[in-house]
Amino acid sequence: MSDGNDYIAWFESLGRTDVPRVGGKNASLGEMVQRLRSAGVRVPTGFAATAEAYWTFVNANALGDVIRTVLGEMRAGHATLAEAGHTIRRAFLRAKIPEPLADALRGAYRELSARIGAGTADVAVRSSATAEDLPEASFAGQQESFLNIVGEDALLDACRKCYASLFTDRAISYRDTHGFDHLKVALSIGVQRMVRSDRGCAGVMFSLDTETGFDKVVLINGSWGLGESIVQGRVDPDEYHVYKPLLDDPQLVPIIEKQLGTKAVKLIYDAAGGTREVPTSVVERAAYALQDAEILQLARWACAIERHYGLPMDMEWARDGLSGELFIVQARPETVQSRREAGVFRTYTLKNKGPLLLKGLAIGDAVAAGRVCIIRDARDLGRFVDGAVLVTGTTDPDWVPIMKRAKAIVTDHGGRTSHAAIVSRELGLPAIVGTGNATELLHDGQDITVSCAEGDEGAIYEGIAGIETQELSVEQLPRTETQVMLNLANPAAAYRWWRLPADGVGLLRMEFVIANQIKAHPMALLRFDTLKDVQARDEIAALTRGYADKAEYFVDRLARGLSRIAAVYYPKPVIVRFSDFKTNEYARLLGGAEFEPHEENPMIGFRGASRYYAPAYRDGFALECRAIRRLRERMGFDNVIVMIPFCRSVREADRVLEVMAAEGLKRGAQNDPKGLQVYVMCEIPSNVILADKFAQRFDGFSIGSNDLTQLTLGVDRDSESLAGLFDEQDEAVKAMIESVITNAHGAHAKVGLCGQAPSDHPEFAEFLVDCGIDSISVTPDSFLAVKRRVAEAESRQRRPPAAPGAKM
């Protein structure tokens, strides 16, 4: 019989090469204790019961014979998977732990209690199989964890349950599928000081974006109480995104997303031992689980762990509510996005979609359509219909067999790190989690379309929509001297385009972020106490929950929304256009009707630059400026360039620049790479005619070809009757474009164009290149085609002229 030292290994003696001895989880914990303390990463102290301990337990009770016999009966068709798993687990639970192993476990537990200064320590007992948490062999929730274990007898009982969990139905099925020999996979047990997150908070963290693989962010989910409630999908957690490249500067706070979760319940200690779920308080639901300093600390740890392992990581964290200390309690390789094929984009377009039924968090970026099958309880799993859309409250590992047979998954509860989300990614299924009431709103047999292709908010539509799929490849894409940039407006969808080799963002429309992320008129927020619209007041009050200052709500939400797009291509330029709603569009924002005049022709009315210095909107524009300052100075995105739309005159330009300077946004010197650059939209004939004078005040022009065409030709671009006259390639429009490029370059200002024409017409792209335009900005789905057209045009420019009479 082996001595106790072969059974017990303290974390500080372990490293990543010890997976065969203590499994992936325990080897990783030991690696972090040994190698990452110098980076400040805190891991709760503990020990592992080794694989040798497992084999001692198995051999002493002849459990190998039981496993071999029962699984043989299952393969012969004499027992079902459920019957086989139950028989093996029952044999493990009835088995006796050999006394030498029991003594070793008791002794290690007493030493752990002494180390942390407790008579009998409360510990977490976690499974760590020798074939799990490898990049090629990982699946959510195969074995069990047991929390708040106190006392030697309770520890031994929990160890026995851990060993039995190696033969859950899902674990047996997974090993069969992946070719693992059941009698060659051992289970190590991690016994770790219990972090009192029942009095604090806990969660999950990834060193990349789990939906797109964007590798410049850390994604953190957090909720009150023990972290298992998040993994089980029992709670809708807070969500934080942190931009990694700016974390090294202690003066910056690069938290680019903070979403407040409902956090309706939490898991706490039970007075009788074990854990129980209780409702959270009103105060807890309205507050973020983590402060900004804690979010940044966790993100820095995630970066340190990722650097050390050299690959993306999936981590669990906890904050002790008694000491206030943060800890990393698990770390394993991320296994979905890190294996995804890079350089190939699949885009989905919905045709003839029905009415929107409900929304939730989008998992993945695919679309699926099918019939609803509602399963509310695990006892009803047998009634699931293959190829249906599984709709349920939450899932746990017992649901995996039917999840594999589903076309898509929809849940009432859960965040991006819930069991349903993790497994859906592993299976490559579109899923929408945290809808709130899908099981109540949808019904069995109903046809629906599940869309995860419209950003990080997923949508469920009535009926079976037509689904068009297009694959884009960036391999062997030509380089161009002319910059090809993107038009982006939706922060929720920005990450999905991070692999496109764009030269930056040529147009980021601020009004889209205001309409979708803020939803309220800035003046209604500033004048909230005098708002007459009672319904608008109630909706604004609900939107601004958690913000003492409603103006701060606008600044914070706008800065973070813009930052998600600025982050995708940092440090390449991102041109943010100040709000360019027309009065009728501003009026549709919450509370906006009280602050906007009625205009017969809003298209050429009170819009753009004229608003920014006008008393009716000057204070609202100040909030926009505050958001830009925060984005550049506090969050660190100094790649952001601002742009003034619809600036009618040089005098108006001066007035706007004065207001900006008064709000702390002063144009920088041209030779200062970190200084603020200010561009102007070129969409009015006066911008072309006086290009040299505008160029003295601005660093660049962005040609808005739609408005410039409209005002050059005198054609309402929205008029069906005049649609045949609206032509961006009209000679007059092209003369305007050529003129502004020539004059701007003469004044050392840059010129770009944002519009659809280069996407639709190859000859227009060639015309722009011939004129010497600096950049062309297009929608992401047009990027590859325009990039190739620009390369072809540049190639023709460099080609020597053909000899007279030569054949072309």
Task: Summarize the SSE layout with pairings.
Layout: E1 8-10, H1 19-35, E2 46-49, H2 51-60, H3 63-75, H4 81-94, H5 99-115, E3 122-129, E4 145-150, H6 152-164, H7 169-178, E5 187-193, E6 201-206, E7 217-224, H8 228-231, E8 238-243, E9 255-259, E10 265-269, E11 275-279, H9 282-286, H10 292-309, E12 313-319, E13 326-333, E14 344-351, E15 356-363, E16 367-374, E17 389-392, H11 400-403, E18 408-411, H12 419-427, E19 431-433, H13 438-441, E20 447-451, E21 457-462, E22 466-473, E23 483-488, E24 505-509, H14 510-518, H15 522-526, H16 534-543, H17 550-569, E25 574-577, H18 583-587, H19 609-612, H20 618-634, E26 640-644, H21 650-662, E27 678-682, H22 685-689, H23 691-695, E28 700-704, H24 705-713, H25 731-746, E29 750-754, H26 757-760, H27 762-771, E30 775-778, H28 783-798
Parallel strand pairs: 16-17, 17-18, 18-19, 23-24, 23-30, 24-25, 25-26, 26-27, 27-28, 28-29, 29-30
Antiparallel strand pairs: 1-2, 2-5, 3-4, 3-5, 6-7, 6-12, 7-8, 8-9, 10-11, 12-13, 14-22, 15-19, 15-21, 16-20, 20-21
